[in-house]
Amino acid sequence: MTKRVVHFGIIGCGLMGREFASAVSRWCHLLDVNYIPVITAVCDVNLDATTWFTDHLASIEQVTDNYRELLDNKRVEAVYCAIPHHLHEQYYLDIIRAEKHLLGEKPFGIDKQANQAIQQAIVEHPHVLVRCSSELPFYPGALKVYDFVKEGLVGKVIDVEAGFWHSSDLNPLKPINWKRKVSTNGAYGCMGDLGLHTLHLPLRLGWKPRLLSASLSNLVEERPDHTGQAVPCETWDNATLLCEVDSGQHTFPMVLSMKRIAPGHANTWFIRINGMLGSIEYSTQNPKQLKIMRYTAGGRQVWGTEDIEYHSAYTAITGNIFEFGFSDSILQMWSAFCDELVNGADMIQPFYCATPDEAAYSHELFTAVLDDVQNRISTRS
């Protein structure tokens, strides 16, 4: 099969930039796709961060600390941009205006105003494909949840709970980073960092939650800086949102939680949907297990657990008996982005990456959360 080559530039050569590069190196893992990404250019303000890429990728032709030089590169067709939230607006605007296809990191702007500027640029450049990175719904179990609901097996929805928890920040001695500062992370705190992952699948199912109330926590108020001196942590550690969804026929409650501090968890993404006909639950904490209950009137209410085979959105060389993992979900997400870029509406499979509209809705919801919390603080004082 002849494969269409898509030349990529990477802006931001940190953890997620390396994950993308690793996914590209594993492209032979995928079967029956008619496209292949090639990383042609890399950019980071810290040139030392680019060394890993030049050490491992022979395809790189350009290394720069100026992202505008990368955008001037005629060979670069698409860009993966993984940078702190306060830089999203300017960088994403410049990438889109340069007519480069973009897969950007969430939350697509440090706040609602920045997101609206990015949205306007997308409208002005309709031929540029813009998507948001959110790999967790590409786990086979998550896709099974999506199919279960779309096939009408839930019936009337009773309630939904979704969340993304990790415990890497439980240690109060962990040094402060940019996600702890409002100037770089934004006032959303953990919601900006984890929220779109939590919302991706509910929004794709057509459920737009309306906020009823929220609880935000700043559990570790100080952390050591690079000198060891304690400095303030300005952003929210944990957020729990009580929401309501109007399905058109009825309303149902939805609880959304995003936690940087969740004892015993290490990047656990989960969704639980209860319905009058069927209920389903999946968590990456047990990535091979899917819990399902199918109910008929007057019948028994019994949860069953099935082992999930390695059956991914895009066919891979891995046998069904093996286990799907995070690096596989990254590869699948990148395949979806390239698939849509190359094949448009005729994608090989239908589940596409998170959209700018989905990111924009997350901004609407998180802005409402901040307003709700601020109103309660004002009322108390």
TrEMBL record:
Residue intervals of the Gfo/Idh/MocA-like oxidoreductase N-terminal domain: 7-128
Coiled coil: none
One family name in Pfam for this protein: GFO_IDH_MocA_C3
Gene3D superfamilies: Dihydrodipicolinate Reductase, domain 2, NAD(P)-binding Rossmann-like Domain
Residue ranges annotated for the GFO/IDH/MocA-like oxidoreductase domain, each copy included: 144-281
The keyword Oxidoreductase appears for this protein: yes
One MF term in the entry's GO annotations: oxidoreductase activity
Family annotation (SUPFAM superfamilies): Glyceraldehyde-3-phosphate dehydrogenase-like, C-terminal domain, NAD(P)-binding Rossmann-fold domains
Keyword terms of this UniProt record: Oxidoreductase
InterPro entries hit by this protein: Gfo/Idh/MocA-like_OxRdtase_N, Gfo/Idh/MocA_oxidrdct_glycsds, GFO_IDH_MocA-like_dom, NAD(P)-bd_dom_sf
Name of protein: Gfo/Idh/MocA family oxidoreductase
